[in-house]
Amino acid sequence: MLKGIFLKTLSTLAFTAMALGVRAAAPTVPVAEIVFYRSLVALAVLLAWLAASGALSGAWRTTRPLGHLGRGLSGVAGMFCNFTALALLPLADATAYFYAYPIFVTLIAGLALRERVQASRWLAVAIGFVGVVVMLSEHLGFGAGFDGNMRYGAGVALIGALCAALSIVQTRRLAQLETTGAIVFYFTCSCVFFGALTLAAAPVFPALGSAYVAPDARAWIGLAGAGVAGGAAQILATSSYRYADASLLAAFDYLAMVWALLASLAIDGEAPSRAVLLGAAAIAAAGLLALRSSRKTPERA
């Protein structure tokens, strides 16, 4: 169990390192290009891990190609939104908004999938929603921190959290029939493909973003770091579930908020506002309440 917690904690650190790499490249490199290079480097890391673990030969075997496509589309959309938010918001703010995704997972499971959701989970959704509203208040013209770019970044971050929730729900479906190696492999390949496709189409469709930009030295370091850290984070998170229950490890996801706060203070000198801290605390409390509820609810056959 302790090994699983340790690996999960390392994965949250790696995801924070990935976010820092994205922020280093974001000022000069289009989001689609960041998605492409981050995913390409992560794919190399993943293939090396699969080869070392003897699982490379079975990584592309699947009986659910459309399921992987659906997961890839939602996951790539979430990545685009997350990276855009990282370019527009302080690291701690963007991380806090992203971790609203458990709220959306509960809503999707209860409304779209018609899963039975206990009252305590709906309470968790309500608390989490209040937390999001508190964080949004300063970006919607109600507080002194009102700013157009930050308002846009907050909205994009929440859309990214919704896309991440859709991806998680689809991953749950795939996990019933597919191996972990195949799920991660096809997702990473989807990110490479759609990142390259968006980047290639940008000159024809400017709404998709800027065309290719030759990265400078700082951007290359950020892109490489984001790819290595992102690939390592996926491997560490996947490996952690071999040693501890998913319900236990889910609580440690919120450590990412702590690392993001510390990184913002140490590197950017940015301290989150009181509204963001209060909202993030409410979201974390909501997630832990939902976790406690899920551990008390027996699985249905």
UniProtKB/TrEMBL annotation:
EamA domain span: 3-136
Cleavable signal peptide: 1-19
GO cellular component terms attached to this protein's record: membrane
Keyword line: Membrane, Signal, Transmembrane, Transmembrane helix
Ranges in a coiled coil: none
Compartments it resides in: Membrane
Superkingdom as given in the UniProt entry: Bacteria
TM region(s), chain numbering: 40-60, 72-90, 96-113, 122-146, 152-171, 183-205, 217-236, 248-267, 273-291
One Pfam family hit: EamA
Family of the protein in this entry: Belongs to the drug/metabolite transporter (DMT) superfamily. 10 TMS drug/metabolite exporter (DME) (TC 2.A.7.3) family.
Name under which the protein is recorded: EamA domain-containing membrane protein RarD
Organism: Rhodoblastus acidophilus
